Amino acid sequence: MNFVLLCRDLMLSSRVEGAARNLGFSVRCVSDATSAIAAIDHSEGQLVFVDLQLPNLDLDALVEEVRNIRGTAVRIVACGPHVHEQRLNAARQAGCDQVVTRGQFERDSSTILQA
C-alpha cells in the first residue's frame, strides 16, 4: 500500500513511518498540504495520514481536494492529541474516514493503518 504522511512532528512521523513500514507499506512523508496533494495526484496513494497539529492546516480544503482527485479510493486518517477535542471534531466534520488520538494510534497503529 502506498501511503502519504502529512506531518512535521518528528516523534509522530517516526512512529507512523515505523508502523507503516512494519506492515510493508511505502511511505512518503510531506510537511505541507500542497505536497500531500501532489503526492496523491502523482501516485497510487491509498492512505493519507494527517497530523492535526500541523500549523496552518486547512483540513476542509485538503479533504475536498483529495476527494476531487481520487474520490473515496483514498482513506484519510487524522490524528491529534486527545486534549484538542475541537480539532478532532473538525476532522470528523471535514470528512476524514477515521479520527484517532495519539494514544489510540500508539496502542492500535497496525489496526488503524490496515483498516
Describe this structure in words.
By secondary structure, the chain is an alpha/beta fold. It has 5 helices and 5 strands. It has a 5-stranded parallel beta sheet with strand order 2-1-3-4-5, sandwiched between helices. It starts with a strand and ends with a helix. The model has no long low-confidence stretch (mean pLDDT 89).
Could you give the topology of this structure?
Layout: E1 2-6, H1 10-22, E2 26-30, H2 33-41, E3 47-51, H3 59-70, E4 75-80, H4 85-94, E5 98-101, H5 102-114
Parallel strand pairs: 1-2, 1-3, 3-4, 4-5
Features:
115 residues; alpha/beta; 5-stranded parallel sheet; 50% helix; globular
Quick recap:
With 115 residues, this protein is of the alpha/beta class.
Main β sheet profile: 5 strands, parallel
What does the average pLDDT come to?
A: 89
Radius of gyration: 13 Å
> Could you tell me the number of beta strands?
5
General shape: globular
Strand/helix succession: EHEHEHEHEH
Structural class: alpha/beta
